[in-house]
What does this fold into?
Amino acid sequence: MYRRYVSPIFGIIRFVDVLITREAALEIRALGIIGPGGPAWGFLIGRRRGPRFFVEKMLAAGRSDPGSAVRRFRETEGLWPGRVVGLYAVRPGAEIKRAVLGPFFYGKLFIELRFFRKGPAIRPFVVEFDGQFRFEPIPLQPSAERNPR
It folds into this structure.
């Protein structure tokens, strides 16, 4: 199921969602097991095909300064040209959200992660602009919501 919305920039209806591969879903579960113990963030490696983001790998940036996200994004993009589709954050604070809500990350995927005993809570967003930058929620495809065993 796609979420439908009108882009304030392009004025067209866009359908966007995200699918997290089995390998990336296991990496999310492993992150919950080792427990970062505080806010942590990293990059999402994958592809964008039409209206869908495919997340294939999660690359941890640790607890480094979120203000360095743009510089680190460019450096990481040099390793995987065209394959860094966005960022993720575990219990994101205001600092990482401020770093992501800007023109550099417009149209990129942002995934918020929270870990509970019953499993991870995965909330995907795309960075949109309608006079100000904001997170637009997008649907997560069911394959990543199932137990990835």
